[in-house]
Specification:
Elements lengths: L18 H8 L6 H7 L11 H22 L5 H12 L1 H11 L9 H5 L6 H19 L1 H11 L20 H10 L7 E8 L6 E7 L8 E5 L2 H17 L4
Antiparallel strand pairs: 1-2, 2-3
Helix pairs in contact: 2-7, 3-4, 3-7, 3-8, 5-7, 7-8, 9-10
């Protein structure tokens, strides 16, 4: 098993980025800069925020990273590809890539979010990076978005042998649940946001997880971000599926 290590921390000696320098870093110059501005706008700042772009960018990212791994590692099994992809697209990795872009300097946040340290919050940085990928897709199509993904991950090492310092042997709940279902040739789980609680600068998400298993009720999870809530829901679903029969 090979490993993929996380990108290195941000270089604080660099000057704060501009929109132009961000676009150079991404390797994409927007024809419609309004898309980039929206991708940098948190819901605490404006009703015209990045969440719909984030939804699109999440799908673009998963497909582009899957394609990247298939090209680089022709002998990896489906399980290895799934685990490494989960590592590459998880919140912590995306937040580190966003820090390398200096994305936090360019985010449009409401006053409450700024006061609570929103610029440094990994969930916001990761979501904004996904939103940018969605914006690139709308601006220039999938091939352009793929090039941006390749640019972002160009220095991420995927050639060294597996070690516990990179991709842990234990799987995150979403990956574990996906593999549980795939091993039984069942469809992938479905996640749905049930409600969002709290003020814009301190939200809690509640997500349901449904699987195509006979008589299996949906499981729910909560967390400070959609991803965290999905992980909690997946963990709850795994507990239900693995519970001994009465």
């Amino acid at each position: 098993m090979q490993r993929v290590s996380s990108p290195s921390p941000e270089n604080h000696s660099l000057p704060p980025p501009t929109l132009d320098s961000l676009q150079r870093h991404l390797g994409h110059h927007f024809q419609r800069t309004s898309l980039l501005e929206r991708a940098l706008t948190h819901r605490s700042h404006s009703a015209d925020h990045y969440e719909r772009l984030e939804f699109l960018g999440d799908a673009v990212l998963n497909l582009a990273v899957s394609d990247l791994l298939l090209q680089r590692h022709t002998k990896w099994s489906e399980g290895e590809l799934s685990r490494v992809r989960a590592h590459l697209v998880k919140q912590d990795t995306l937040a580190q890539l966003a820090m390398q872009c200096g994305l936090h300097h360019l985010l449009h946040l409401g006053e409450g979010e700024l006061r609570s340290g929103g610029r440094q919050r990994p969930s916001i940085q990761a979501d904004a990076l996904e939103a940018i990928l969605g914006a690139v897709y709308l601006d220039a199509g999938y091939e352009a978005a793929t090039r941006v993904v390749q640019q972002l991950y160009r220095d991420v090492d995927s050639q060294q042998r597996h070690s516990s310092a990179a991709v842990p042997l234990g799987k995150d709940p979403k990956t574990a649940l996906q593999e549980w279902l795939q091993g039984r040739k069942l469809p992938l789980p479905m996640y749905e946001v049930i409600q969002i609680l709290g003020a814009a600068h301190r939200q809690e998400f509640e997500v349901s997880c449904s699987v195509a298993v006979s008589h299996q009720a949906p499981a729910r999870g909560r967390g400070p971000s959609r991803r965290a809530a999905e992980q909690a829901a997946a963990k709850a679903m795994l507990a239900q599926l693995n519970a001994p029969s009465s």
